[in-house]
Specification:
Chain A: It holds the Pfam family NifU_N. Chain A: It comes from Kineosporia mesophila. Chain A: This is SUF system NifU family Fe-S cluster assembly protein. The complex is a heterodimer of chains A (161) and B (426). Helices cover 45% and strands 17% of the residues of chain A. In chain A, strand 2 and strand 3 form a beta hairpin. Chain A is of the alpha+beta class and 161 residues long. Chain A has 7 helices and 3 strands. In chain B, helix 12 packs across helix 14.
């Protein structure tokens, strides 16, 4: 496999076209802060941007919708993320993100666990390209940020007591 | 400063090959063993062994602090440092005292923008109601400092818009340069579009209203014969690393008189005359603008770079790059689904060609080209407004230099032809 093919695995090429979960996110939408949040992430180095909106149902990720403009890696990564985390408990989704980050930072040395990462293992080749790691993490960063916003909006156990 | 095919004899194939022999890095391979095709000189140029050797020789014989100390090394280092200033000044047609060393061109523009908002700049101090004029094709380095200067001073920032062909819309200039205009700051050549702007025309209009002219010469001084004195600009900036020199050194070149009328911006050692606990007096230019330890080794290396360019001949380099501009334009034009961002003709244009590949993001374009050994720049090239003007967030950019061969362009065009297919765009 050439270095180009090991970077652009078929999964990535497919997702960059199919863009699962991509939707028009209306500017004026009123969101319930206790269950839904949106995060916009921008990479000033290349101009790529993505907005991810998540809705939690209890402790599960109920829906993920996103829009954005960027390279095939960033578009495919967000599409794969959609497939991986919709319907998952939040804790599991966070676990996938942690493993994914570790893989991307491995400089090609890591041994990603396909059981955890599923299709996201296709991005292992990105870790050899330092200047593309940010592309592969952009949508995930938006997910993580949206998650934190919802958690911040929810009353904690202490508040309720 | 027009660049046409009727000027000097272009460097021929053998001469370009002889030049390439001086650049060790051009002989390396990348990725799966592809021979490097370096088309990113607009971002930073490569250095010939003569430049590397000059820095090495200086470091191993004369290196020391300059303008202080009585020892032999201090004297030799000072001589080498000041000789570099003389060489660079002559190269761009300004007096030696008109050359200020900076870290880069960005710093030079920031120094000017800061000085011109200082009340101590007297007649030059920007005030509410004044106007600063730039163009829509500026690099962020010649835009953001003026945005800040306008915000600090209450002056208004205006800009010359572009035509769809990627040239300044000169029909607007007479309205934009008026009695309120105090500064006209513009690129000699665009780092994205490759457009070479009509400096003499803009300078004449600016002078007629008494405005200062400031030229961003980063993309011209390395590629064209540039005589700043003859162009009549008040100040200009350029960077060492785009003209075969090292990073960490730039030049702020100005006409005699202007620099001495401006207050210092960075202060501290080396730029003062007399210092008490309460106050200080400042040296004349250029030292007034060179606080702290200067880039000594970089200046010595930059001198070697200028000597190299001089030996080859800037007129012949310009003539060769005119050929390369035509080859690049023809090549990009021959690939289906690719659009040039910038003028489609090689007249008054540098060999810097930005383009958009339909349906493929510039990062992905750059990656496929890299796999073929071809290094281009991708992104917004520190010029977001010009990209927005042409309806894109980012672009890919091939930029050539004196060491670029016809075969390099052919390899680039061939690789470009494979990009859309790789991503399944037909």
């Amino acid at each position: 496999m050439s270095s180009l093919e090991s970077l652009y695995q078929q999964v990535i090429l497919d997702h960059s076209k199919e863009k699962h979960g991509r939707a028009d996110l209306g500017e004026g939408d009123v969101l319930d802060p206790l269950s839904t949040a949106r995060s916009h992430q921008y990479n000033p180095l290349c101009g790529d941007e993505v907005t991810v909106q998540i809705t939690l149902g209890g402790t599960d990720v109920e829906t993920v919708a996103w829009t954005g403009d960027g390279c095939s890696i960033s578009q495919a990564a967000t599409s794969v993320m959609h497939d991986l985390i919709v319907g998952r408990p939040v804790d599991e989704a966070r676990g996938i993100l942690a493993d994914y980050r570790t893989m991307l930072r491995s400089r090609g040395e890591g041994e990603p666990d396909e059981e955890v990462l599923g299709d996201a293992v296709a991005f292992a080749g990105v870790s050899r390209h330092a200047n593309r790691v940010k592309c592969a993490i952009l949508g995930w960063t938006a997910f993580e940020d949206a998650l934190l916003r919802i958690e911040a909006a929810r009353p904690t156990a202490k508040d309720e007591s | 400063m027009t660049l046409t095919s009727t000027q000097a004899t272009p460097l021929d194939h053998d001469e370009v090959e002889a030049i390439r022999a001086d650049f060790p890095i051009l002989h390396r391979t990348v990725g799966d063993g592809a021979q490097l095709v370096y088309l990113d000189s607009g971002a930073t140029s490569q250095r010939p062994r003569q430049v590397l050797q000059a820095e090495y020789d200086f470091a191993t014989t004369s290196y020391s602090a300059v303008h202080r100390g009585a020892h032999t090394l201090a004297s030799e280092a000072t001589d080498a440092f000041e000789a570099a200033r003389e060489t660079v000044a002559r190269f761009v047609g300004v007096p030696t005292d008109g050359v200020v060393w900076t870290r880069n061109a960005t710093e030079g523009l920031n120094v000017l923008a800061a000085a011109l908002t200082d009340p101590e700049a007297g007649q030059y101090t920007l005030k509410p109601g004044d106007e600063v004029l730039v163009t829509e094709m500026e690099h962020h380095a010649n835009l953001v400092p003026w945005q800040r200067a306008a915000a600090r001073s209450g002056a208004t920032l205006r800009w010359i818009p572009l035509t769809d062909a990627g040239r300044l819309d000169l029909a607007t200039v007479d309205g934009l340069i008026n009695e309120r205009t105090k500064v006209v700051a513009f690129a000699h050549a665009s780092n994205v579009l490759g457009t070479i702007n009509p400096v003499a025309e803009l300078v004449a209009k600016a002078k007629a209203v008494g405005a200062l002219t400031i030229l961003d010469a980063c993309q011209s001084v390395p590629h064209l014969p540039v005589d700043l004195g003859a162009l009549g600009v008040d100040a200009a900036v350029f960077s060492g690393h785009k003209m075969l020199g090292p990073t960490g050194i730039g030049v702020l070149a100005a006409r005699p008189g202007l620099l001495d009328a401006l207050p210092p911006v960075l202060t501290g050692g080396s730029m003062v005359e007399r210092v008490t606990m309460e106050t200080a007096t400042f040296r004349e230019a250029p030292q007034r603008f060179e606080a702290g330890p200067p880039p000594v080794a970089q200046a010595v290396a930059l001198r070697a770079a200028v000597d190299y360019l001089d030996r080859v001949g800037m007129d012949r380099i310009a003539a060769r790059e005119h050929q390369l501009a035509q080859l690049l334009l023809d090549g990009v034009d021959s690939v289906a689904g690719v659009r040039v961002i910038g003028p489609n003709d090689a007249e008054n244009r540098t060999a810097t060609v930005a383009f958009e590949v339909e349906g493929v993001h510039p990062h992905d374009v750059g990656q496929v080209l890299d796999a073929a050994g071809v290094a281009v720049r991708v992104g917004h090239h520190c010029a977001q407004p010009v990209h927005r003007r042409f309806g894109v967030n980012a672009s890919s950019r091939a930029s050539a230099y004196l060491y670029t061969t016809d075969a390099d362009v052919e390899r680039f065009v061939q690789a470009l032809g494979s990009v859309r297919g790789f991503f399944g765009r037909s």
